[in-house]
Specification:
This protein has 325 residues and is of the alpha/beta class. It has 10 helices and 13 strands. It folds into 2 domains: 176 residues, 3-Layer(aba) Sandwich (Peroxisomal Thiolase, Chain A, domain 1); 144 residues, Peroxisomal Thiolase, Chain A, domain 1, CATH 3.40.47. Bound molecules: acetyl coenzyme *A.
């Protein structure tokens, strides 16, 4: 018996050059480096240049992932791009990436699940690859949250940054007894009762404007650890894996305190956690592939390692995946 699995061939990322430090932010709003570091673990974040968009950053990350995977863009037949900050209301930013890469076959579309978007995109691509409909996918998370922020609101503008990350996934037919490869499971959750706790106060069908990000930070914090640990436990149950099998924990990088709290509750030691929130801030759907690429590039993550990915964000949405790298 054979099983069809989505196997990761490579990853890549892109960060804008402009670094915005906490000290620089403290000159714009009433905050301090000490407050931001203590409450969030963030020291600095990147901000997209005027000529950079979610689409251009996504294309850069996609090129890096294709080069890392050593595959030609023309072999990609599916692009799933997670973002809450698309270049335009439509078409999907994924089709801009498709055109940028010179691909004019297959399918390209966006998914929107805010900070859980990358894991939702992985699940979507995985389902389409395993169904046999597609063979090789680019799964991308890309965000320009700097353009959604109210830069006079110190409770939100200190938290976020811009960037993009991408993974190349390929459908492979594996002998069932060698099936412990690639994406082992993806678990998705949402609960719309929490939608007003983290949202953007604009949109095409409500205000006709783009709007600004609004958040009840304490409320998000209150739910985050429980939701994350619940969906991670579900991923373990679905695969028979335990926390002891995990080589690297790659959480959504929203806040160091949420990451540490989740790791503590799950029993994951600090030396297995990939942290980039200190340098990137919260890049929403881009944060997981950015962190993954960081740890693959510096060779912490090795082929065959078991990776635990998780995220939680607006909606609320939350999600977890186990990926044999
Ligand atoms: N600088 C200085 N003071 C500030 C700042 C700031 N940037 N922001 C808020 N404060 C003040 C508040 O006004 C408040 O002052 P007050 O006591 O005089 O009223 C005080 O600090 C405490 O505010 P809280 O909101 O209670 O601070 P808290 O300890 O909860 O930390 C934070 C705020 C960091 C936002 C925290 O609630 C948090 O991390 N929440 C989770 C948010 C998050 O991670 N969101 C993203 C996840 S989902 C996604 O990724 C989209």
């Amino acid at each position: 018996m054979k099983v069809r699995r989505s196997v990761a061939l490579g990853c890549g990322s892109y960060l804008p050059n402009l670094v915005l430090t906490n000290a620089e932010l403290a000159r714009k709003v009433d905050t301090s480096d000490e407050w931001i570091v203590q409450r969030t673990g963030i020291h600095e974040r990147r901000i997209a240049a005027r000529n950079e968009t979610t689409g251009t950053m996504a294309a850069q990350a996609a090129r890096a992932a294709l080069a890392h995977a050593r595959v030609d863009a023309q072999t990609i037949d599916l692009i799933v791009l997670a973002t809450s900050t698309p270049d335009n209301t439509f078409p999907a930013t994924a089709v801009s990436v498709q055109a940028d890469l010179g691909i004019n076959h297959g399918a390209a579309f966006d998914v929107q699940a805010v900070c859980s978007g990358f894991v939702y995109a992985l699940a979507t691509a995985d389902g389409l690859l395993r169904s046999g409909a597609f063979n090789r996918a680019l799964v991308i998370g890309s965000e320009t949250f700097s353009r959604l922020l109210d830069w006079t609101d110190r409770t939100t503008c200190v938290l976020f940054g811009d960037g993009a990350g991408a993974v190349v996934l390929e459908a492979q037919e594996l002998e069932e007894n060698r099936g412990d490869r690639g994406l082992l499971t993806v678990r998705l959750r949402s609960d719309g009762r929490h939608k007003s706790k983290l949202y953007v106060d604009g949109g095409p069908s409500s205000t006709g404007t783009v709007g600004h990000l609004r958040m009840e930070g304490r409320e998000v914090f209150k739910h985050a650890v429980a939701m994350i640990t619940d969906v991670v436990e579900d991923a373990f149950k679905a695969t028979g894996k335990t926390v002891a099998d995990v080589d690297w924990f790659i959480p959504h990088q929203a806040n160091k305190r949420i990451i540490d709290g989740s790791a503590r509750k799950l029993g994951i030691p600090a030396n297995k956690i990939v942290i980039t929130v200190d340098r990137h801030g919260n890049t929403s759907a881009a944060s997981i592939p950015l962190a993954l690429t960081d740890a693959v590039t510096d060779r912490r993550i090795k082929r065959g390692d078991l990776l635990l990915l998780e995220a939680m964000g607006g909606g609320f949405t939350w999600a977890a995946a186990l990926l044999r790298w």
